[in-house]
């Protein structure tokens, strides 16, 4: 009996030792798994934070680039409008009574085309749909206004090349026959209409561009905290 009892105690002790080893292994494995999961989660969070930071930096760079592009667009229209307005007003102040095409010379060189990229417009749309709607067509308005100035330059050059002129400094006098006058009349009227359209479009589109520029600037200040300041002046009003 004593021997059997001792054998049972020995068996229980052995079993307990086995269970202790297995239990220790299970606990150790669970702790290792928890640590691994926590480390993985921390690494994933850090990677996400880095991606978000890089994405924000990229969007901010796009925003700055778009802002400077829109400043150039508004400045182009402002300069074109002033070129026509100041010429007409200066001639009127000196008592000029002739046709606009006689004094408004072609602008050379003309501004390059401006095109808003999908990245730029996509960035704006993701932040403010109202600003997106304000800016959506400004590049096309700019380019079509520049095209008017280009058309005027070509047509005026073609007309002026037909006649010679007696020059006195920068002023020229052209003698014309009645036939010449009949030929010139419809072309002069068309050129004068182009001058009027050029002025209206440059100043009107310029003001619209400036309003859009102010909206874009406010949006970028709100979302990216940009420090660049705009001069509070509408093109064509100086």
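Q: What amino acid sequence fits the structure above?
A:
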């Amino acid at each position: 009996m004593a021997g059997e009892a001792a054998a049972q105690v020995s068996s229980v002790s052995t079993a307990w030792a086995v269970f202790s080893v297995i239990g220790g292994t299970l606990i150790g494995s669970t702790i290792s798994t928890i640590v691994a999961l926590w480390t993985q989660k921390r690494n994933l969070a850090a990677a996400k934070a880095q991606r978000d930071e890089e994405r924000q930096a990229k969007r901010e760079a796009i925003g700055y680039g778009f802002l400077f592009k829109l400043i150039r667009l508004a400045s182009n229209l402002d300069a074109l409008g002033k070129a026509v307005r100041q010429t007409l007003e200066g001639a009127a102040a000196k008592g000029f009574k002739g046709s606009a095409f006689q004094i408004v010379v072609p602008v050379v060189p003309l501004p390059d085309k401006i095109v808003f990229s999908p990245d730029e417009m996509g960035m704006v749309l993701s932040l403010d749909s109202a600003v997106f709607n304000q800016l959506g067509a400004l590049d096309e308005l700019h380019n079509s206004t520049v095209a008017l100035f280009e058309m005027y330059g070509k047509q005026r050059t073609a007309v002026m090349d037909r006649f010679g002129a007696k020059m006195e400094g920068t002023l020229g006098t052209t003698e014309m026959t009645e036939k010449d006058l009949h030929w010139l009349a419809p072309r002069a009227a068309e050129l004068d209409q182009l001058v009027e359209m050029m002025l209206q479009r440059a100043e009107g589109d310029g003001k619209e561009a400036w309003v859009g520029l102010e909206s874009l600037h406010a949006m970028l200040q709100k979302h990216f905290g940009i420090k660049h300041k705009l001069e509070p002046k509408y093109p064509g009003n100086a």
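Q: And what stands out in the fold?
A: The helical segments are 2-93, 118-127, 129-135, 138-160, 178-224.
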